[in-house]
Give the backbone structure.
Amino acid sequence: MSEALKREAAAQALTEVRSGMRLGLGTGSTAKHFVELLGEKVASGLDVICVPTSEVTAAQAKSLDIPLSDLETLDRLDLTVDGADELDAALNLIKGGGGALLREKIVAAASDAMIVIADGTKLVETLGRFPLPIEVNRFGLGATRRTIAEVLLAHGAEGGLKLRGEDKGTPFVTDGGHLILDAFFGRISRPEALSMDLLNIPGVVQHGLFLNMCSKAYVATPDGVKRLLKNN
């Protein structure tokens, strides 16, 4: 998918931003375009204050002189703009391919609205083609992994469970110091039930199912950028 189209999706989302807003800044290749474009607007006088969802995004925003804060100082945000690894017609999402899902979900939940920007390959009929990231505590990893595997079996997962980065010899570590297990489903038929079952496991910190959080999406396709609204 053309980076130019991703950038156009980001530009469309930027039209939703007004001076004085408190913004959540997403993480990933498409969100990076939004932060770049926002930096240009800030340089031209746009007055916003932002909470980044990862250290990578924070570094990018700082390099562009975008004013930053945190959710201790700002307890509520007007809008979060972020990418997605998958989205369905109801704008339910899988996120976390970049490893920032916990902070992304905290920031999205603290926002009055969430807009997703993505390319057309991320749009699916049913979530689950993309592996579901599950952020877990380092302590008790073996026990947590076994319990997650039992949940996957109960939910009809077609594939296995993999610790991110283990094939490279060094597991991936999130900004919060946790690990990520990627669960290969193929198709998630009961996302709400799966969400609850995973969060009931003590070692699970959070997962990448973002359900009923996104209200609008700008999706870049070869035919241009399409705007999708929740419940449309």
